[in-house]
Design a protein that fits this description.
This protein is of the alpha+beta class and about 160 residues long. About 20% of the residues lie in helices and about 35% in strands.
């Protein structure tokens, strides 16, 4: 496994739409392992392939219950509403208040190409939808209501 460099907000690649994953092979598995290691090293709860410079419809999420890998995700259903602070590894040291659904159900493929469905509430819903936005060239800063706040040295 190798830690990858995370691209930051000014990188135009982060604003592009990602392409579907067609090959489920050892190179994909190595990429998923690298993404997971990179996410953990950066102390994030999610990481999408565009954040490491690859326009592929892939993201990983771990809200503290183990990593879940998503290829070619589709949002099937959303319900409710939550409003809370959100940050992003590609927008370091900044956060803002974002309104998202409180519940999300996604359909995606695993590392072997098998389809699965997953439901999440609160943080899990937020994480899945945040990472899925990356695959469509959208960043959380596009959704912030109010000011984007910079962390103080004490908060970092």
């Amino acid at each position: 496994m190798a830690k990858r460099t995370i691209r930051i907000e000014s990188d135009p690649l982060l604003r592009k739409v990602s392409k579907e994953v067609a090959k489920f092979d050892q190179s994909l598995w190595a990429l998923l392992d690298d993404m997971t290691e990179t996410m953990y090293h950066a102390e994030g709860v999610g990481l999408a392939a565009p954040q490491i410079g690859l326009l592929k419809r892939i993201f990983v999420v771990d809200i503290g219950e183990g990593v879940i890998e998503f290829m070619n995700p589709e949002v099937i259903q959303v319900e409710g509403e939550q409003f809370g602070e959100e940050g992003c590894l590609s927008v370091p040291k900044k956060y803002g208040a974002v309104r998202r659904p409180n519940y999300a159900k996604l359909r995606a493929q695993d590392r072997n190409g098998e389809w699965f469905e997953i439901e999440g509430e609160e943080l899990m819903a937020r994480a899945m939808l945040h990472e899925n936005d990356h695959l469509n060239g959208r960043l959380f800063v596009d959704l912030v209501e109010g000011d984007l706040v910079e962390l103080t040295e004490e908060e970092q």
